[in-house]
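hiii so um. not sure if this is the right channel but i have a protein structure encoded as tokens and i wanna go backwards to a sequence. like what aa goes where. can anyone help
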């Protein structure tokens, strides 16, 4: 089984990225041949600062390795180190109906939020299809927001196979129910581009302040809260530690737990959860030669595979 997933260096990684994609991806390392990449081409659709992109790309590498990506088991690389993927994206785009992309809700959401959109953002699912198909991937662990894009990939692969003969493996998305959509500090999907994130790593003071400033309603601590499961702090707590989440939810429902104390608990649990990873990240940051070596080795392996699959597609479509 080949597993593939990517993450954009469009900002600093957050709890949504971790629980929605990184943790499942790390668990899957033991079950097959994993290819994980830093989606720097994709980040170009929304981020236009080169220094920021470089900084974030390194950040994603450190975060992923600190959280448990094992380069002995997984191939870890930068998307742009395998430029073959852009050629395949072109080939696939010629078989992609406009209507398929016009339906994509992630694009429509960004338009609705007033984020300036460009052709790259519109065509993003085609590059994503190329990312997946060029490694003959079977399984793609993603958050709920990416499910539709994996379905687009399947549609495109089927179209190619019908037009030019059996060429691509048809991939399956893998989505974890309970962490499929981690909410941000405003209650919407936590997303780097929505400014509603709680980062996995960062300054303790800043992060504590973020957690403590999550908005709550004005009900008094003693008041029972029958809608406790709708509380944002409870939802986040449950994602990080289901047991503590349930306990606090019961207390909140019964009355007697104040919002301030609840948020303090959330911060504590969250901070503790990443303590070991934080220490590992600091070690990695002091050893960048190692990190760059991992990415270089990963790029070599990924490129070798990508070239064979691309050649298959070139032959099938009459380019060779
Ligand atoms: P951007 O806002 O730039 O799109 P993002 O925060 O959505 O950034 P991506 O790099 O697009 O992050 O996504 C990386 C992975 O993390 C994907 O598999 C995506 O499904 C998952 N993911 C992102 N946000 C969440 C979330 N809030 N809950 C669960 N999974 C998420
Ligand atoms: Mg996203």
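sure thing!! here u go:
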């Amino acid at each position: 089984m080949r597993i593939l997933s990517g993450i954009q260096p469009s900002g600093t990684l957050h709890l949504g990225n971790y629980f929605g994609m990184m943790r499942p991806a790390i668990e899957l390392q033991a079950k097959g041949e994993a290819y994980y990449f830093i989606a720097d081409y994709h980040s170009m659709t929304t981020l236009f600062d080169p220094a920021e992109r470089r900084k974030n790309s390194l950040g994603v590498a450190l975060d992923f390795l600190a959280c448990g990506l094992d380069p002995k088991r997984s191939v870890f690389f930068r998307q742009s180190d395998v430029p073959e993927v852009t050629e395949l994206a072109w080939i696939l785009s010629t078989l992609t109906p406009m209507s398929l992309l016009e339906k994509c809700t992630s694009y429509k959401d960004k338009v609705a939020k007033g984020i300036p959109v460009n052709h790259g953002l519109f065509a993003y699912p085609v590059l994503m299809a190329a990312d997946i198909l060029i490694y003959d991937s079977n399984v793609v662990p993603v958050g709920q927001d990416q499910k539709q894009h994996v379905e687009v990939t399947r549609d495109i692969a089927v179209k190619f196979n019908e037009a030019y003969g059996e060429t691509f493996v048809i991939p399956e998305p893998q989505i974890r129910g309970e962490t499929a959509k981690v909410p941000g500090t405003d209650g919407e999907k936590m997303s780097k581009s929505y400014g509603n994130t709680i980062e996995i790593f960062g300054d303790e003071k800043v992060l504590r302040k973020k957690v403590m400033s999550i908005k709550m309603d004005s009900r008094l601590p003693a008041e029972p809260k029958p809608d406790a499961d709708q509380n944002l702090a409870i939802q986040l707590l449950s994602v990080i530690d289901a047991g503590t989440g349930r306990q606090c939810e019961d207390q909140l429902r019964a009355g007697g737990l104040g919002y301030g104390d609840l948020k303090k608990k959330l911060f504590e649990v969250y901070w503790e959860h990443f303590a070991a990873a934080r220490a590992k990240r600091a070690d990695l940051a002091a050893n960048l030669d190692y990190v760059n070596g991992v990415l270089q080795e990963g790029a070599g392996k990924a490129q070798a595979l990508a070239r064979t699959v691309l050649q298959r597609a070139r032959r099938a479509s009459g380019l060779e």
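oh and Residues 288-316 form the longest helix (29 residues).
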